[in-house]
Structure formats: structure tokens, C-alpha cells
Specification:
364 residues, MetI-like fold, Rossmann fold, alpha+beta, 15 helices, four-stranded mixed β-sheet
Amino acid sequence: MDLSVRDEVRVEPEFPVKRRQCATPPPRFFPVRSGVARPLRVLFGALSVALLAAGYVWLTRQSWVSQTILPSLGTIAQATGQILAGRDFWIDLGYSFARVTAGFLAAAALAVPLGILAGSFRLCGSLLEPVSEFLRYIPVPALIPLVMIIAGIDEAAKVVLVFLGTFFQLLLMTADEVRRVPLPLVQVSQSLGATRLEIVWRVLAPAAMPGISHAMRMCNGWAWSYVVVAELVRAVIDWNENPDYALARAAMRDPRVEVRHADVAEVLRENAGQFDAIMLDVDNGPDPMTTSGNGALYGDAGIRMSAAALRPGGRIVYWSAQDDRKFERALRRAGLTVEAARVWSHGTSGTLHTLLVARSPVRS
């Protein structure tokens, strides 16, 4: 018998390796893809809210931050309480809910059946999905001019915008959920003699319904963001037509009044020397709220353009929530005489607002 002996050479690693056992428990605070205790999750969730609130409070106390842009938490709480206690908020919420519901239900009633067909039959998917994939990336605000031309500026336009914002997304998501149904379910149904219609409506649709419900819930959330855009179409016109504001509504219904839904700056630019009076709302004040977007009206060039639209002796009235000496000086630089009046927001109560009355010189 031939016996051979081999020498075994043990190679030690250059760096010591820590031995780990499979039974080692995961760390308590940050285990990789493992659960943690519920009290710990609640604690970290509360910590995130506390850090956000602390950061906001710190920002509001800085001298370089305007209270108009970042009000204090106390001011926000007070304003929120006033809004919730008022009747207008709940009326507006009801209108928004009706618009979202109408647009979303119309989209779901059409998108879900079409999505089921697109996910069940390859030819239906080839017919519907290329166009939907292209149209779903068009921003909803970009559709406003087209919707105004087709549906006008009434309630139908708002519902159409919500519909367009959710229809294509929901169709594609429904088709994807149908394709996730396991193929063996279809094969078993075929073996039992089920027709194509029975497979679609009694097998694929029920099996995909949990995922479709999740997709509908997501699209409904998006619909609430789209209704904000939709309600900008003619929000100012709707506000003035409110029966609660008799003076504004009477003016809107005067046969001498022409209502134009257009860019104010463009209207003033195209009608030089045509106005006896112009009234402009400066939000919370011309200085802190002026950006590149509204600078066309409230910057030096915008003030000169507005003054040029006046007839001799005409007046521009600017509403502001506060005094702004810098803006008054800009009005005077444009050759206007300025008077500032402090008025109550609601008759003899509420908060004091500022009306800046700028008058064009009278030509002799």
C-alpha cells in the first residue's frame, strides 16, 4: 500500500477578519431591511417633525427673512383658525371636491376598462399605449390655453383639466397591473374551457383589482394637485361673480363692462392712453411679493407702462396689505402724484390695509 503525506500550509490573511455567526442578532437601531419596534418608529417620526418645526422657527427669527414670506407659527395657527371658522373655506372646499370627483370618476370610468384591455391583449396595448405614453408627460398647465379654447372658462374647463391630468396615467398603470397577474391563472382558465371574455373579466380583472385600486388612489391624489391649476383659469372672475359680493357682482353684470381673461400687462401695453382708472391688487405688498413674474407690473418699467395707459388726470389704485415707501417713490419717479390711504379690510373692523392712489398729471 502506497501512502503519501501532503504538507498542509495554512495561509493567514494579511488583515485579521472578524468571524461572524449566522445567529448574530441584527442591530437594534439600524438593521438592514429588518423591522424595528413600533415605539422607536414613532419616536423617529416625531423627531423629524420636531426638527422641521425647529428649523422653520429658526428661519422666521432671522433678520434677513421677511415675515410676509415666512410668517411665524403663531401667525399661521391664527390664520388657519380664522379660515376654518369661516364659511367661505368650506364652500370652496365643496366646489373643489365636486370638480375633483367629476374629473376623476370620468377618467376612471374610461381609463380602467381600456387599461384592462391594453394589459390583456397585446394588439390593444399597441394601439393605446404609445399615444398615452406621449401625452402623459405633457404638463397640465400647458393644456390650459387649449382647454380654454375648447371648453371655455367655466366649470367644464376645470373638470376637463382634472380628467386629462389623470386619464393617461391611470390607463397605463392599470395595464401594468393586469400584466402582473401570474400567467398560470390564464392557462388554468383556458384548460377549464373559459372564453377570452371570461378570462379577462372573471380572472385578470379581479386578480389585478388590488393593484388597480392602489393606482386609482394615487391618481386621485394627483387630481387634487391638478385642481389647483384648474381653478386658476378664472378664479378672479368667479370671485367677483359671487352673490355675497354685491358691488363687484353688479359691476360684472353692467352692460358697459367688458370682461377679458388675459394678461393684465399685455392689456395695458396694447391700450396706451385708454383708461380713466386702473385698480391693481399687489398681494401682500409690492416689494416682498415682486418677482420676475409680476415685475412686468410692479417694477419701474411696469409702473411706467401702467402710467402710459392712463388718460390725462387718470388714476391707478394699488391695494397692499402694508405700507411700502420704496414703491411710493417708484410711483413718483414715473411722474405720478401719490396719496396713501389706510382702510379697514371689513368696513370698520379687521386689519388695516393700504390703498396707494397714483394720479397722472393733467395736461393743459
